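Review box. Two proteins, two foldings.
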Amino acid sequence: QSGNESEGSEELTIEIAKWEGSDGAGIVARRHVIPEKFILQGGFSLKEPTDLVLRKGMIYVSDMGANNVVAIDYYGKIIRFMATKPSDYQGVWGIPWGVDIDEQGKRIAVTFLKTQNVRVFDWRGEMIRDIVVRIPPEMLEGEALNLYLPTPQPMDVVLEEPFGLWVSEYSYGQAVYYDQVGREVLRVGIPKMLDDAEPFRTPTFIERHGETGDIHVVDSISAKVVRVSNAGEIIDSWSSQGVAEGSLSLPKGIAQGQNGELLVVDGMLSTLQAFSEEGKLLATYHSVDEENFPMPIGMVAVAQDSASGDIYVTSKLANAIFVLRPAPEKK
């Protein structure tokens, strides 16, 4: 639940069969990139980077080990630390995990592990809202009261203009929407401990598509992505389990890439792939020098710079940010 890797864990090596294609699969592009470790100035290093967002020429990354969110420019300069506990805050602060920034770069929303809280800060790092995610109402009535009721655990957050936000909640398996003042408006999904639970089992990362406004929730252990309208209606879900290249085993970060594509990293397979909003596999990413400079292991989150095409990923195994730069096309 805290997101820390257990002691004694070893890297899992999985061999992926060569892609042979399938009926209706279409052409899957192989995009080559040049992986580079993103170097921070002043000898600074991240302790356990998790989620990251690119906004207005800045990189925002939640650092679980340092218990804050770090704002970094594209040259690796540390601009400020955010989401740190105020001296006068009463109660448990928790560990920053999911993060999102509004389009103007003026508001930042952060979820905190080991708490029920989602907090919103201004660009200076001052907290302007503290939202507590509640137990689903249906769990507080009837036979559900006989069940063990865990503490809600918000995982990821996405800001929706003008001021509302979506939260993926892990303990009960739901997506919850709050308005601009932090009031709960709607919930998507039947709590996972109930017999008729659907569609989520382990919701983690969440993304809002800038063109359609639809929400995409990654269900990591179920290895699927669920698409939800901004009105809270479940549109569909998709997975690429069981295929060869492009398979999802433990999907984690999801982000909108260029041309409306969805970029998804798989933390188990250490792979990156692009899908359409409907879940069609469009492309897989590969290092130009797989032997000497392979794709980063243990990728967690992903974001793409729309101007340069550079893709940024965090690795909790390497405790670093990596940049995947598009390789020049061969003539």
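Next protein.
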Amino acid sequence: MLQIEYLNYIMLYGQDFSPMRTSTFVCEVYLKTNMNKLIFKEITAISRPLLYTKYKNVNVQDLLTKETIAKAKARILTGDFEDNGEYTQNYRLEDNLKVIEEPDDETIVKKLLIGLLNIRRNMPATYKGFDFECEGFCLILGIDVGRFNFIRDLLLEQGFIAETENKAEFQMNPLYLTAKGYEQVQKINKRTVTMKGSENSDQFDYDVVISFAGEDRLIAEEIVKELKERKISIFYDTDPEADLWGKDLYAHLAYIYGKAGKYCIMILSQNYAQKLWTNHERQNAQARAFREKREYILPIRLDSTEIPGIAETIGYIEYNNSPSEIADKVLIKLSKLSQ
């Protein structure tokens, strides 16, 4: 098993060359600070017929090792993954006859800028020399390098990105996000998210509601600040718009956590387990999640305290993620509800 460190993650790579009709190449991504926390799997599978035709004169193990790791790196940079997600790309003989629908330019621009933003945030001292994972980026989106270069050149002309000169011959110069590019990312994120489904119309009061114990308020405030910077509307109990004065709090909070938001962030801790009001919020959120049979509750764990009704199998993130990383993940969740 090959191990690679990449940003805040550890990547473990292995392959299966069993004598079946398909050979698989697997890259497992874990948090660097918690090797028991599987983030996602990147899988490339190649059929035996294709292996012995198109790739018969190619070192397939080296080729698909490189491609699988490149896709995992690009997925980390763009944040295009969910906890415990599994992303599989199949190479089959019949796929050579299919035409894959490519994303529009706006989607490519957004993902590229977000990837460069993640590099700059995670590597503030060395981001200007960090190579963006171009190959994996193109493989995930199903675009060729020519189209990537076209988008890159436009962004360079607009001043959203810049290049650091690289003396190595035949290698692309490292790209990095400029201050102007950061402003563009913020503009891109200024959008109204609507949810699909008959029961879930777009008539929501908030993108996100947040549930936490008073003792954990400082952590909640850090997350709320990052969410607001991304123009994500949020119910937070100290905001003027919350307007709790004079309301029947029991009924009002039942509405907030049961109906008012598209997602509910829960900051889980020993403090959370002991509070009456957080239990009330949790029960209404759980009833909503049960009713809609979808990912509604987004748990963030501060410790390992068992919370009634929150199964160990539910995907969660730990607070060793930075508030900005958490906010970016929420943004991705919301974007997947867009029409």
